[in-house]
Amino acid sequence: MQKIDSDYYPETLHQMFVVNAGSGFKWIWNSVKGFLDPKTSSKIHVLGSNYQSRLLEVIDSSELPELLGGSCTCSDKGGCLGSNKGPWNDPYILKLIHNLEAGCMRETTKPVSEGGERSSSSFRLEQMKVKF
């Protein structure tokens, strides 16, 4: 089942950080991560109460909310928790996604056999060239 899942539903996770994790959560995580693909579980970092230095190693202080040890306040948006700030609004990422979707074309084939028509559909990527 894991093989089918990884073959047909590719992973898109870059990194995930769970902060302020208690000992109970860490125990559960150590049990659960054995069922995940090692590539995926290596991208999930479970941190205890001393997480600030680890987060600042991978996230710029100006992008990390104050409540997590950074300097971002999103004061113009009513605070970081109320803002919609994130990579999903990054113009570079939006352009990349738009170009990838434009290169994806749906192809439908209807093979005819003695028993009648049967239809199947598949997706194929056409020229995955992204121009910036």
UniProtKB/TrEMBL annotation:
Report membrane topology: Peripheral membrane protein
**Where in or outside the cell?**
Cell membrane; Golgi apparatus membrane
CDD domains, per database record? SEC14 (cd00170)
Q: Show where the CRAL-TRIO domain sits.
A: 1-76
Q: Which UniProt keywords apply?
A: Golgi apparatus
Asked if the Swiss-Prot or TrEMBL record annotates the protein with the keyword Cytoplasm, the reply is no
InterPro entries membership: CRAL-TRIO_dom (IPR001251), CRAL-TRIO_dom_sf (IPR036865), PI/PC_transfer (IPR051026)
Query: Is Plastid a UniProt keyword of this protein?
Result: no
Record's protein name:
CRAL-TRIO domain-containing protein
Q: Which organism is it from?
A: Zea mays
Q: What is the lineage of its organism?
A: Eukaryota, Viridiplantae, Streptophyta, Embryophyta, Tracheophyta
